[in-house]
Amino acid sequence: MKTALITGAARGIGLATARTLLDRGWNVALLDRDEAQLFQAVRDLGEGVAVVADVSDPAQVEDAWDQVSQHFGRLDALVNNAGVADFGPIAETTFDRWRTVMATNLDGPFLMTQAFTSMLAADGGGAVVNITSISGLRASTLRVAYGTSKAALAHLTLQQAAELGELGIRVNAVAPGPVNTKLAMAVHTDDIRAAYHDAIPLNRYGQESEIAEVIAFLVSDAASYVTGQVLAADGGFGATGIGLPSLRG
Ligand SMILES: NC(=O)c1ccc[n+]([C@@H]2O[C@H](COP(=O)([O-])OP(=O)(O)OC[C@H]3O[C@@H](n4cnc5c(N)ncnc54)[C@H](O)[C@@H]3O)[C@@H](O)[C@H]2O)c1
Q1: Mean pLDDT throughout 202-220?
Q2: Does 118 fall in a domain?
């Protein structure tokens, strides 16, 4: 049975992805550092295996490898979804705040993919999906750390695709537009929400399940010749430039 490991799976987009892959018959290991929320999520799902770890800590990543190896002994898909958002002006972004964002959003996918490469390569290869963001595709105020971490993750995706292809490992990224998760609710003010509506041709936030569908496609055999891509699921945000709100009006 195909096995997936999803990081940041205790809630939000990661949990929706776990649900989608379980529905499609995958074994799923759900990894998160929030132990209470993670065990609650696995109880609610009624299936899946909980792996408590912080993706930014090399020792905990090694421990996660041991747990996945013991439970399943194989891995076909790794979804590097765990992420943190911290919006603030450059002048107020202390080095600690910067490092906290980079540690989870960039160090995490580097460490996780490196640790699980040999498990993914065994049995004919596998797939990695890194969750970036539209904030990594276009710049905006307040996102110096978050946006830069996601742009770097998009390039890490290309580096990994270039090097791991020979092992039969495909590596792609999904860049979600805004989705009403706890992460977004914490940093999206009313002004930001209104601006998003203005800038998105579909004129709404995405659903967690709509992002999960794209991730599920990229880890599936239907995407067997797709690697090194950053696929935005953003309601058309990336397509627009100036003038959309006025034209709409
Ligand atoms: N929600 C959005 O609008 C949006 C938009 C674009 C991109 N994204 C990206 O999608 C991903 C999922 O976001 P979400 O909105 O579902 O967030 P969320 O905050 O609802 O869930 C994130 C989960 O990751 C876990 N996590 C955070 N840091 C971790 C670490 N170091 N180790 C292990 N677990 C960790 C958290 O405990 C939480 O359960 C993130 O990478 C985020 O940047 C979200």
Answers
A1: 98
A2: yes
